[in-house]
């Protein structure tokens, strides 16, 4: 599986490039097809970031990431 840096992840924010990616626990997920992530934002969360710390404040568990394809690892 390919590795990406935080800087590369940051470019996949739905603004700078069409891809919408987020990271969680070292894995990077492509959420581009999710209607909840259109324009790179989901509630107060922005795409192109590591959301590991922010999940504690979310109304769902980490199982939400099972809906998405893991496309890489955070370097």
UniProtKB/TrEMBL annotation:
Which InterPro entries does the entry mention? Cyt_B5-like_heme/steroid-bd, Cyt_B5-like_heme/steroid_sf
This protein is called Cytochrome b5
Q: Where is the Cytochrome b5 heme-binding domain?
A: 4-75
The record, for Pfam families, names: Cyt-b5
């Amino acid at each position: 599986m390919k590795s990406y840096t935080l800087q590369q992840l940051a470019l996949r924010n739905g603004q700078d490039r069409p891809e919408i990616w987020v990271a969680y626990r070292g894995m990077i997920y492509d959420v581009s097809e999710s209607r909840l992530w259109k324009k790179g934002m989901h509630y107060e969360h922005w795409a192109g970031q590591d959301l590991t710390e922010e999940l504690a404040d979310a109304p769902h568990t980490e199982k939400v990431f099972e809906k998405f394809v893991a496309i890489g690892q955070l370097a």
